[in-house]
Fold this sequence. Notes:
The protein has helices spanning 8-22, 57-69, 82-92, 105-108, 189-194, 198-203, 210-214, 228-240, 251-260, 272-286, 293-298, 307-317, 358-361, 393-399, 403-408, 427-435, 451-460, and strands spanning 159-160, 166-168, 174-175, 336-338, 369-371. It is an all-alpha fold. α2 (57-69) packs parallel to α12 (307-317), α12 packs across α17 and α14 packs across α17. It is globular.
Amino acid sequence: MRERAFWIVFFLGLMTLSLAACGGGGAGTDGAVIDESGDTPDVPEEPPITPPVEPSALDQQLLQALEDRDVDTPQAPPIPADALVALGKALFFDKELSGNRNISCATCHHPTTGTGDDLSVSIGQGGSGLGSARLLGSGALIPRNAPPLFNKGLPAFRTMFWDSRVSIGQGGALNTPEPALNGPRPTAGAIAQELTTALAAQAIFPLTSHAEMRGDPGENELADAADNLEVWTLIMDRLVGTDNGTQGGFAEYRALFQAAFPAVADIDGFHIGHVGAALGAYEDLAFRALDSSFDRYLAGDLAAMTDEAKRGAVLFYGRADCARCHGGPLQTDGRHHALAVPQVGPGREANGDDLGRFAQTGNPDDLYEFRTPSLRNVELTGPWMHDGAYTTLGAAVRHYDNPVANLQQYDASQLSALMRPLVDVDPTRNQARADALSPILRPSPDLDGNDVPDLVAFLRALTDESSRDMAGEVPARVPSGLPVGD
Length: 486
């Protein structure tokens, strides 16, 4: 475990006291260097030493809480190759990857909308517009909130989606909705070999969803494909062509793929695994967010956070016990918990319900459980919860104080007009959600009137300021020539 940098503050303080006690030498010219002429040579003046900030009583309380919780900053992986990132960026913004050529990865994970879409649940293919202005049109509502992409390329993230239906083991074996990719000896081994991170593996699955990007049967060749493997093959035909690139495809994509994967001998050797690897590399580098005021505080800058944020951090790591699930360098335990969140949107079940992790495992203990999200840049990633039920950060925090009561008294007026009629008010299902509430949230932390603003201030201290304006990430064009904007 690396030494936590915030202890530097204490060592600086001790050193300052030691130097003061020693006096740093006598007065006058004692100890000065005299040259042969007897003159004292000019010596550049050293810049004054800025004394360390003396920890306040609040700092001492917070520093102790951080020490008790063993809090540290995340470590970033190596920078991916430029050619791989360039290919991934082109693919990320290109609608050519969707069945009807009307939606890209960026539509639901746009840099200008916090790598999400500012919607409670996403509007998939067939919609129009971007962010909160996106219109349903002939499109489909996606059952869940678009998960943000900040820091998802870090090695600590080994599962993806709200129900962790994509994951990668310590040995690199995948577990995904496509059996041909899974296990230590996958039948689609060439594809699986390129998907070395959970982020890269996740990136290829929205392409196979009819509602998200693929389109409805009868609309295009991707939508009519027999299985995932055929969908992925047809996407490669669109991008690089067939017959070693002599039929169809785009010359610019062929050049980008060859630059990113020079070991591939011919064009027909490119496959969807290369697409996933490139998308993962771009998303990793573009959306790293590791320089928040909290990080600077941990590095020894006691002035990096406001007192309100510091009080919130003391609560977060203390009485409110948020760190029980949102601990670690990325403020997530990577596990699944049932929070009695109101169900908004179409749900994943025929009756409008969403059973969470249970739908993947069949284990009754997993009913209504969803993966704990990272809180890095959480200020930028609303609406919050698996279905975007809360549209302000304060409301999301208040939910944890009394989840069952907040479920029963949920205020749908905070939602958009499109979403308000899609709140599940069925008393039987709501009771099941209440019954499944994780014991971690019982009893209530009894937050008072000042606690919520303090907690929100701390959550805002987890924002990397460089993430506030990422409009520069949007390219002017993509190789297909399709419009980049929505």
